[in-house]
Amino acid sequence: MESVLTIGEIAKRSGVASSALRFYEEKGLIASERAGSGHRRYPRSTLRRIAFIVFAQRIGLSLDEIGEELAKLPIRRVPTRKDWSRLSSKWLKRIDEKIAEMERLRDGLTSCIGCGCLSFDNCQFANPGDRMAKNGPGPRFWL
C-alpha cells in the first residue's frame, strides 16, 4: 500500500498552493481519497503528477492538454520513468520553438521590437513605409 499525504503535506512538498491542488483535482488532473473526517489524502505518487503539471504549464501546455496527456498514464500503477519519457518526448519541438521565440524577443529588446512605429533608425530597414501595418496592429514581427 502506497503511503498517503494530506493536502498540506502535498502542497509543502510540491510547492503548489492548496487552492491550486483543489483546482487540479476539480479538473481531474489529480485525485484524492477522503479520510473518515472528509479530509483529502493523496497517494505519494501524486507528487509526480503535480511536477508533471507544473512542468507542462511552464512549457505552455493548457490544462486540457495536460489532462489529455495524464489520461495516457497507467491508472493501477505508479508511472515509470519510461511512461514520463514517452509523454514528454513529444514536447521537444515545442520547447525548441519556445526557446527560439525567447531568443528573438531577447534580440529584439536591443534593436527592434517590430511595432511598426518607425521611431528607431533600424525600423526604416526592418519595416520601410510601415508595410507591416497591413497585417494589423501591434508587434507584427513577433506575433
Describe the structure in your own words:
- The protein has helices at residues 7-14, 18-26, 46-58, 63-70, 81-88, 92-109, 123-126; strands at residues 4-6, 33-34, 40-43.
- It has 143 residues and is mainly α.
- The chain has 2 domains: 4-91, Multidrug-efflux Transporter Regulator, Chain: A, Domain 2 (Orthogonal Bundle), CATH 1.10.1660.10; 95-135, no CATH class.
- A 3-stranded antiparallel beta sheet has the order 1-3-2.
- The mean pLDDT is 82.
User: What string gives the helices and strands in order?
Assistant: EHHEEHHHHH
Number of helices: 7
- Unreliable runs, pLDDT <50, ≥5 residues? none
Beta-strand percentage range: 5-15%
Secondary structure: elements and pairs:
Layout: E1 4-6, H1 7-14, H2 18-26, E2 33-34, E3 40-43, H3 46-58, H4 63-70, H5 81-88, H6 92-109, H7 123-126
Antiparallel strand pairs: 1-3, 2-3
Please name the defining characteristics of this protein.
143 residues, mainly alpha, 3-stranded antiparallel sheet, 3 strands
